[in-house]
């Protein structure tokens, strides 16, 4: 497992330093970020994120001549559209919103023949993002067309997931079974057949994904066992989750969500700090490590 992540040598908690400091050297630049107050650091994150957005839009949409080779959210142009929508949410820049819609419309046309109905790899993602963006842009025609597709999907799901009390107990029992069958390390197997491979600490496989599910379970059921298990899984993420990729599914970005979800549930500032630490690691080192070939620039590579 160790060859998949960078050793986490960051302190488990660092207090904010509200005093102005002199310029520091590269070797302690990460420590400086960790002690930077959240209000100041959020501005750095935003600037860096917006710069990266411009680069991504240019490379995936501008330089391609707006060609549609892959419409999906996971590895295609819909991911660029989602990035633009997220940017619009932060900045209220309508140029981002309208470019998002332009890309969504292209994805809509490209996905009509798709038989994949999932959110990240199929047409559901196109419909969901398109309907939300169209509402913000007052594009009633697009909103109406895509919302109807979503409505049908929601009704289908609701018909399948109306749960009775005994079914809720089955869910709790399954979660407890998973907790009781984790690896000695605290990580989780990806399947019943894969109990000898304690390798993956991903948002999609292993402790990170389980932690997010357990946080949800703790919120729904109010069961302390689920919260404690989520915290234990988060410790695995802290120790082994600085992956050698930057993305959501297989990278540091996705693993940071574990700490955000725990902070939202508990209000414990230590979890917010750990999310901040993972983001600071990316801000400080991702570009250098990627340029040096020590880190992958995304998930699907």
UniProtKB/TrEMBL annotation:
Gene3D superfamilies named in the record: 1.50.10.10
Biological processes per GO annotation: carbohydrate metabolic process; peptide modification
Protein name per the record: Uncharacterized protein
Entries under InterPro entries matching the protein: 6hp_glycosidase-like_sf, LANC-like
Keywords: Metal-binding, Zinc
Taxonomic source organism: Salix viminalis
Any one GO CC term of the record: plasma membrane
Domain of life the protein comes from: Eukaryota
Keyword Manganese: no
Residues annotated for Zn(2+) binding in this entry: 204, 249-250
Kinase among keywords: no
Example GO molecular function: metal ion binding
